[in-house]
Amino acid sequence: MPKSRHPSSGPSEPQDVPSGAGWIPHGYTMAPHAHVAGQLVYAAAGTLATTTGRGTWVAPANRVTWTPPGFAHSHHFYGRTDARLLTIPVDLCGQLPEHPSVFAVSPLLREAVLALTGDRPERRPGAHQRLLAVAIDELSDAPEQSLHLPEPKDDRLRAATGLLHADPARPATLADLGRAAGASERTLSRLFHTELGMSFHRWRTILRIHHALAHLTSGMSVTDTAMACGWSNPSSFIDAFHDVVGQTPGSYQADLRHSPAAP
Question: What is the CATH number of domain 151-258?
Answer without folding.
Answer: 1.10.10.60
